């Protein structure tokens, strides 16, 4: 048997074992990381359903990176009000990516009533944290 194949099998078992144990014991960070593993197929078989399930568990424990992910899952699934709900929770905690996404929602009227003033405020909050997409958006927005 190829040594790389043995290493990959052992690595996969390690991820599944250690991460899953911590996640099942309620660690929000482990739930989030296990969700990322399932999302990307990193050390486990790729599985969108399990990725979402682990992320929502972490998000419900107020783990901000998971809240951003859950918002994105809902957005890409077309459930915009839920996307806004989760991004707003993360944005209120100061997450720059979520603040940017809230700005996008307000600009486009997706999941919320369109409001360019609120869009700009969210982008400004994200830009002040050094979030480059928000800085770029403000440059384009202010030039138009």
What's the quick description here?
Helices cover 78% and strands 0% of the residues. It is mostly helical.
| Oligomer classification | single chain
Order of helices and strands: HHHHHHHH
Main pleated sheet: none
Q: State which percent range the strand residues make up.
A: under 5%
- Strand tally is 0
Portion in helices: over 70%
Individual helix count: 8
Structural class: mainly alpha
- Rg, nearest Å: 18 Å
Unreliable sequence segments: none
Q: Based on CA inertia axes, which overall geometry fits? A: elongated
**Mean pLDDT score:** 90
End-to-end distance, in Å?
62 Å
General description of the model:
This protein has 144 residues and is an all-alpha fold. Helices cover 78% and strands 0% of the residues. Helix 3 crosses helix 4 and helix 6 runs antiparallel to helix 7 (116-128). It starts with a helix and ends with a helix. The model has no long low-confidence stretch (mean pLDDT 90).
């Amino acid at each position: 048997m190829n040594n790389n194949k043995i290493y990959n099998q052992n690595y996969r078992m390690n991820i599944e074992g250690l991460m899953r144990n911590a996640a099942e014991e309620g660690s929000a960070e482990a739930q989030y990381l296990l969700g990322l593993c399932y999302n990307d197929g990193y050390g486990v078989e790729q599985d969108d359903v399990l990725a979402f399930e682990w992320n929502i568990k972490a998000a419900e424990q107020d783990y901000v990176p998971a809240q951003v992910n859950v918002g994105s899952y809902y957005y890409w699934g077309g459930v915009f009000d839920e996307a806004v709900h989760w991004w707003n929770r993360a944005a209120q905690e100061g997450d720059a990516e979520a603040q940017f996404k809230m700005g996008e929602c307000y600009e486009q009227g997706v999941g919320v009533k369109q409001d360019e003033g609120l869009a700009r405020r969210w982008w400004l909050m994200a830009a002040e944290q050094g979030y480059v997409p928000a800085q770029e958006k403000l440059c384009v927005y202010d030039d138009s």
